[in-house]
Amino acid sequence: MIEGCYGELVRAASAHCTLLVFLNPGIDACLANNLKRPWEPHKYASLELQNSMLDQLQKWVAEYYQRTDAYSYRVHREIFDAFTGPKVEHREISAYTA
């Protein structure tokens, strides 16, 4: 399993994949999930410091379908669509905004 935010890792490993799964639950689910993030002590000295960055993270996530950077829907979609092996996409249609 490879975390999908880093699309280039998925692209590099795709030649060895037996199944590619695209978790695409939609913006609403992602934003709600961010609000439940546990403290990541390897990134932040305190939960308070992590939470101080939450507004910035929420904004970044909310722009997922409009961005064109390496962490965008556009790049993830290109990687998924180009994969010729077995694949499945899980998404919540009602939250999908592309």
- The share of residues in extended strands comes to 5-15%
- Tally of helical segments: 5
Radius of gyration: 15 Å
- In whole angstroms, the N-to-C terminal distance is 25 Å
Give the low-pLDDT segments.
94-98
Could you characterize the architecture of this molecule?
This protein is mainly α and 98 residues long. The chain has one domain. 42% of the residues lie in helices and 10% in strands. The protein has 5 helices and 2 strands. Strands 1-2 form a two-stranded parallel sheet.
Give a brief rundown of this model.
With 98 residues, this protein is mainly alpha-helical. It is built from five helices and two strands; from the N terminus they run αβααααβ.
Secondary-structure blueprint of this entry?
Blueprint: H1 7-13, E1 20-24, H2 27-35, H3 47-52, H4 54-62, H5 73-82, E2 87-91
Parallel strand pairs: 1-2
Helix pairs in contact: 2-4
Labels describing this entry:
5 helices; single chain; disordered C terminus; two-stranded parallel ribbon; 98 residues
